[in-house]
Amino acid sequence: MTIAIVGGTGPEGSGLALRWARAGETVIIGSRDAHRAADAAKKIHEETGANVSGTENKAACQSADLVVLTIPFEVHAEILKHLKSALHPGQILVDTTVPLAASVGDRATRTLGVWQGSAAQQAADLAPDGVLLVAAFHNVSSELLKGDAPVDCDVIVCSDDKQAARRVRELARKIPGVRAVDGGKLENARIVEQITALLIGFNIRLKGHSGLRITGLPPEVYDI
Ligand SMILES: NC(=O)c1ccc[n+]([C@@H]2O[C@H](COP(=O)([O-])OP(=O)(O)OC[C@H]3O[C@@H](n4cnc5c(N)ncnc54)[C@H](OP(=O)(O)O)[C@@H]3O)[C@@H](O)[C@H]2O)c1
After folding, report:
1. Are 28 and 60 in contact (CB under 8 A)?
2. 54: which of 41, 106, 114, 207 fits an S-S bond (Cβ 3.0–4.6 Å)?
């Protein structure tokens, strides 16, 4: 599976790219600037030896089986419109975007109301028909992803397409330490996105890189 990461030069996108490259996945880093993408990809390739390349966002999406959006909310709609002609039916689009109020100059410990209910549902509205929307990775700190240690966080995966959600849970589990949990329908992304604002508040007040663990479920659900 070829994974394109839109905005993959930023902390969240490059952290995911690093972890998936270490797991042997083929990764294309996307950026507005092909040179910046190539530089970011070169660093990850040198560290991991994996098949990692970099190019402009749209070109990255064209050849990918799965596209991950790691961009700030303020440009979410604009980038999705830009990418529309590069996305195609059957492709999985994973949205990690949190609609933080920081996007409009307010605090990162609050979220904005999104007309569709969540950033992920906005993405579903703007993506071409047949693109399979999955919301995931909102609660995983880039500070943890960029390191070598296992990541102490569960990933809640929400989607209206069960098969796409399962593939993304498999991908999440390739990050050491991560357990993936079925978060139900895409509309639940609204709740998962908001949890990130709470985690950012912990990080600021209590000085850390907080994550999330879902406990009390039968052990087998973390492997499905
Ligand atoms: N950072 C975290 O720990 C974390 C954790 C969970 C979820 N998230 C979510 O993941 C997303 C990415 O987070 P991040 O911290 O990596 O974000 P970021 O550094 O602000 O942005 C990521 C990338 O988006 C591109 N970008 C920035 N401004 C843009 C613009 N005006 N137009 C087009 N592209 C632009 C940039 O790539 P180019 O300049 O190369 O195009 C940048 O490297 C956010 O929605 C965030 O809420 C982040």
Report:
1. yes
2. 41
Q: Which atom of ligand 1 is nearest to the CA of 100?
A: 47
Residue closest by Cα to atom 33 of ligand 1: 75
pLDDT digits (tens, 9 = 90+) for 2-46: 999 999 999 999 999 999 999 999 999 999 999 999 999 999 999
DSSP output for 66-91? EEEE---GGGHHHHHHHHGGG--TT-
The protein residue with its alpha carbon nearest to ligand 1, atom 6, reads: 138
221 Cα: distance to centroid of ligand 1 (angstroms): 31
Report the chain's terminal Cα–Cα distance, integer Å: 19
DSSP alpha helices (H): ranges in the chain? 11-22, 34-48, 57-62, 76-83, 119-126, 142-145, 162-172, 189-206
Atom of ligand 1 nearest to the CA of 142: 3
Classify domain 2-223 by CATH number. Answer: 3.40.50.720
Give the mutation target among 70, 107, 178 for probing the ligand 1 site: most ligand atoms within 8 A of CB.
70
> What does the domain layout of the chain look like in residue ranges?
2-223
Q: Residue 93 is which amino acid? A: L
The C-alpha atoms of residue 22 and residue 28 are separated, in whole angstroms, by 14
**Closest Cα to atom 28 of ligand 1:** 72
pLDDT in tens, 135-187: 999 999 999 999 999 999 999 999 999 999 999 999 999 999 999 999 999 99
**Cβ(147) to ligand 1 under 6 A?**
no
